[in-house]
Every structure is written in structure tokens, then in C-alpha cells.
Specification:
Elements (H helix, E strand, L loop, with lengths): L12 H23 L12 H27 L29 E3 L4 E3 L9
Antiparallel strand pairs: 1-2
Bound molecules: zinc ion.
The site of zinc ion has 6 residues, from loops.
């Protein structure tokens, strides 16, 4: 078997496997820190993906509340609707993006809350 020599040979298979293994090791180290799920890190900070999902939950609640206010303003008695199904919003806007729990709606007061742990104040 003839071996190529010098720079023209480029990467051989062993070198390619070593590079891929190093990249895989780096990805395995970094990705759990980046994704982070909904758990907290030791320093109390959350990963960017979890923080983004928190923001989506706040945005969903804002959309639901705005729709409720709009419907209540159009109602002759000014009452909020009896349930969230009548809002005409997509199903994914009516539940928490992290836990998938449907938002809790109190028709008497017109209040909407997320029941996911840590989202009660949104
Ligand atoms: Zn939530």
C-alpha cells in the first residue's frame, strides 16, 4: 500500500475520527449547560432555553389576558367569558410551554394564571 506524503495527503481517516471525537466530547460537555431544561444551576441562574420558555409563558398569558379584556369590553354586561375555549386562541397559547399544564382561569374574577412551579407570579 502506497502512502501519500506531505501536505497534499490531507486528513486521513484516523485524524478525522479523532477530530469528530473531540467535537463530540465538547458538545457533550456544553449542550446540557445550554439546554438546562427547567432545573436550576448551582448558581441559581437558568439556561437560555429555559429562560426563553419562561418568556413564552409570560407572552402566552399576556395574549390570553388581552383577549379576555377585549371580549369583556365587547360584552354588554362587561363580564369575562365563561372559559378560555371561546377566545379563539391556538391551543399552544393556552398552556405552559414548559410543563404543558393548561392555564388556570377563574371566570368569576377573570384572572388567568400559570400553574407551573415558579410561574405563579406571571
Ligand atoms: Zn408557565
Amino acid at each position: 500500500m502506497a502512502r501519500r506524503s506531505g501536505r497534499e495527503a490531507g486528513l486521513n481517516l484516523i485524524e478525522l475520527v479523532v477530530v469528530i471525537a473531540i467535537l463530540a466530547a465538547i458538545a457533550a460537555f456544553v449542550m446540557p449547560r445550554y439546554l438546562q431544561g427547567s432545573s436550576k444551576r448551582a448558581d441559581g441562574q437558568r439556561g437560555p432555553v429555559a429562560a426563553a420558555r419562561d418568556t413564552v409563558c409570560k407572552s402566552n398569558l399576556s395574549q390570553v389576558r388581552t383577549s379576555l379584556q377585549t371580549l369583556a369590553a365587547g360584552d354588554p354586561d362587561g363580564r369575562p367569558p365563561s372559559d378560555l375555549a371561546g377566545l379563539g386562541l391556538p391551543a399552544e397559547v393556552q398552556r405552559c410551554p414548559i410543563g404543558g399544564e393548561p392555564y388556570r382561569y377563574d371566570a368569576a374574577s377573570g384572572r388567568v394564571q400559570c400553574v407551573h412551579p415558579g410561574h405563579e407570579a406571571y
